[in-house]
Design goal:
A two-stranded antiparallel sheet has the order 1-2. The chain has eleven helices and two strands, in the order ααααββααααααα. By secondary structure, it is mainly alpha-helical.
Length: 244
């Protein structure tokens, strides 16, 4: 799996809708049903980026599924950056792309190479465009990640933090490109390798690096944000490849 092929997958996926059979064996029934419902809605024009989804209770009835399974399916879509849940307002569709467009044989090294191309520049842009609300959101995600005591919790807040930086660019195209790339984090090979290399000490190190990124964003320092993000991603890449 080459890097150029991975990039082609990212750009090509901007035209793809949610859902693909190549992941069907990894999904729960509620997950498959929810994705199918969204795909049908997108095709029919019912659901567009920014559209409000039915409530959890309504989805339970519509999908004939249990509330825990619906909640889990929504959490997965949120982690992939396809929906956003806002307290007191509801759940909204953020993208009509398919995370499944990411080549399934993408290696951790290829994924990290793509992240090193995109994310430092995204951080640099966000340093100039982030709103006060964006910075508050980033700080909350950073703090929650710092309190995480296990791999799953830290990974969840880590994914939210990195996507929130992309959102802070205020650039829909960059956000969509980021979402496809970020969906690679849900490939089995990525999750397995991250879990194998995750330790409390390493998570503390990543948290410190996140602090440096946020500080540069708060200081409106594009060069500092780009540098801090690059340092962080290189540390992650070294850990995944078996380095220090």
């Amino acid at each position: 799996m080459g890097f150029n092929t991975f990039l082609l997958g990212i750009f090509g996926s901007l035209l793809v809708q949610i859902g693909s059979s190549c992941y069907s064996s990894l999904m729960t029934g509620a997950d498959q049903a929810l994705r199918a419902m969204l795909q049908d809605g997108i095709a029919a024009g019912t659901f567009r980026a920014g559209a409000k989804l039915p409530t959890e209770r309504e989805l339970v009835e519509m999908l004939a599924a249990s509330r825990p399974s619906v909640r889990k399916a929504l959490s997965q879509l949120e982690r992939e950056g396809l929906i956003t849940r806002q307290v007191g307002r509801g759940t909204f569709l953020t993208s009509t792309m398919s995370p499944d467009a990411v080549p399934v044989d993408s290696s951790p090294a290829t994924i990290m190479q793509a992240r090193l191309v995109f994310e430092p520049s995204i951080a640099s842009t966000a340093a100039l465009t982030a709103t006060a609300v964006d910075l508050e959101t980033l700080e909350r995600y950073l703090n929650e990640g710092g309190k995480s005591a296990d791999f799953e919790s830290f990974e969840s807040w880590d994914a939210k933090l990195h996507r929130a930086i992309a959102v802070a660019t205020q650039n829909d195209l960059l956000i969509r490109m980021f979402d496809v790339m970020n969906a690679a984090r849900d490939l089995p090979v990525w999750g397995l390798r991250k879990r194998q290399t995750s330790t409390p000490e390493r998570r503390r190190q990543y948290h410190h690096e996140h602090e440096q990124i946020l500080k540069a964003l708060q200081d409106r320092d594009p060069e500092g944000a780009e540098h801090a993000m690059r340092v962080h991603l290189r540390q992650v890449g070294d850990a995944l490849s078996g380095g220090a």
